């Protein structure tokens, strides 16, 4: 008579051994594939400079993205929308404190990166901090006026907000105008 129970145990034991062997192979394969990505070298100074520049430029693009509709309203290219003016000014106020941080993260003037930042910017980080704080203040003032919904008062307030942006541009950005 055939021993079904014994055969079943034998088959079950072979299945467990194969499963363990397959699991071991998979662990070794995964480790071999994953280790190179974990063991990558730190980025070169040039790559760090490129990344720092891209981060800095990304922040300024976000500031410009939020300022553009406000300027469009002031130039009558866009219909006045108090809610958009307020929202965008609050965003500018939220982003502006990052300006000194992204500049202080890495001085890129000795690297061949495409930038509009003048080299003297890294010698004047205290002034940059002051100008960024002024931008926060002017953006919040503008947003408060815009929240009241008065088109004339809101658009008159743009001069101070635009001036806060322009003060930094005039001193620390290549003049492309």
Distance between the termini: 99 Å
Low-confidence stretches: none
Give the averaged pLDDT, no decimals: 86
Structural class: mainly alpha
How big is the Rg? Answer: 29 Å
Strand composition percent: under 5%
What is the overall silhouette?
globular
H and E order: HHHHHH
CATH topology of the largest domain: the name is Four Helix Bundle (Hemerythrin (Met), subunit A)
CATH superfamily (homologous) name of the largest domain: Cytochrome c/b562
What is the helix content? Answer: over 70%
CATH class descriptor name of the largest domain = Mainly Alpha
Q: What is the number of helical segments per DSSP (H or I, 4+ residues)?
A: 6
What number of structural domains do the residues give?
2
The number of strands is: 0
